Amino acid sequence: MNCLYWLGWLISKIIFSTVYRREITGLGNLPKNGSYIIVANHQSHADPPIIGSCISKPIYFIAKKELFEVPIIGWIIKHTNAFPVDRAIADIGALKNALKILQSDNVLLIFPEGTRYRPGKIRKLKKGAAMLSVATNSPVVPVAVINSDKLSGFKKIKVKFGLPMIFDASEDYDSITNKIMSEIEKLKNED
Q1: I need a labelling partner for 69 at 20 to 30 A (CA). Which of 53, 79, 175, 187 fits?
Q2: Residue among 179, 178, 143 at smallest CA distance from 25
Q3: Which overall architecture, per CATH, does domain 3-189 show?
Q4: pLDDT value at position 122?
């Protein structure tokens, strides 16, 4: 058991539930057993703890390798289920870590935008979630996080979990990635 992970989980749960009045919908959509991949939009550094503290099962997440070099933050994320990815290359080590996590019936959080995304900017989506879903037969749960980019204004945060999506090798990774992001956009626009 990772005590630091659960301490961070508890602190995040308290802060996001009380200070930011977090509203969570769709938790019943999460698979009860086995591995799955949570795929979410990315607006803030706070997105991993916002999403992770919604779920009572530990999640693992991929973070850009540069974050592991930041004093204190690097140490914290290394000890709270994060592992690094080099976004400049096809990082085989990160891929192997992700495969091992999913093959061990764990939950993996991925942001296909690859970085925090600001509306109106062009983005090139990463296909890792699609590839991992097909390779491990793990369902993808689309998640929309709303207002995480407005933490300083104490806006109410909303986290919406969509229905699991299953993919197979008959679809290409670009198509799968676009379907996932389309579901996230639908969740963001629902009332």
Answers
A1: 53
A2: 143
A3: 3-Layer(aba) Sandwich (3.40)
A4: 47
Cα separation, 21 vs 12, whole angstroms: 12
Residue pair 86/65 in contact (Cβ under 8 Å)? The answer is yes
User: In this structure, what token pair is assigned to residue 184?
Assistant: 């996230």
Structure tokens at 135: 């390779």
Instruction: HSE, CB side, 13 Å, CA atoms: give it for residue 175.
Output: 8
Q: Is 151 helix (H, G, I), strand (E, B) or coil?
A: helix
Tokens encoding 76: 């914290």
d(CA 133, CA 35): 10
pTM: 0.90
pLDDT in tens, 158-184: 999 999 999 988 889 999 999 999 999
What is the SS3 assignment for 7? helix
**Domain range annotation of the chain:** 3-189
- Which DSSP helix (H) or strand (E) runs through 185? helix 173-189
Which two structure tokens, joined as six digits, stand for 186?
A: 């639908």
**Residue 110 to residue 41: CA distance in whole angstroms:** 9
Neighbours of 151 (CB within 10 A): 18
Q: 152: exposed, middle or buried (C-beta count within 10 Å: 0-12, 13-18, 19+)?
A: exposed
Strand partners, 60: 108
